Amino acid sequence: MKYRTNKYLTLKGKIEEISLPDSAYGEWIVYENDEPKFHVNIFNYESKSDCLVNVIMTESKSEFKSILKDINERFKRNLTLSSKTNFGIKLNSKLIESELDSLPFEWLEHYTALIKAPWEKYPNINPSDMFWRMGKGEDAISIFARYYNSLNRTEKNEFEKEFKPTAEWADFYE
Length: 174
Known about the structure:
The protein has 6 helices and 6 strands; from the N terminus they run ββββααββαααα. It has about 170 residues and is an alpha+beta fold. Helix 1 packs antiparallel against helix 5 (about 135-150).
């Protein structure tokens, strides 16, 4: 992926920062020890950890900074959203090709407890009800399905055993 890097001259010396376009919504560059290491995109439905970040933010109403704070405390990391200080002179800016990974799933794995199957989250609502086509019902199915679709076949099999559908929802995984 292409990223824009900006070099700044600050009181700490030269600092390089990667920036996303202004149109990047739900995306963050995460730095570890002032080095760009991860790219989180909650709309990247192929990444299991990015989908889980989406679940965390939606279900627990957490801000992304809170998730990073939790990771830093539990795993003794130094993750931040920026490497530059408030004061600096921009030296240059250029596009670079780089591959930044998603956050390691192990750092987020304990949040899978937030995942609820639609039939568990709203057990009294029939699967053919209009509720599932808009608003909270549509969101519940979308979040659950996106996370499920980010799993490999083995993980999907385990997931289906853990989230066994009720009789009314029997064809959900088909």
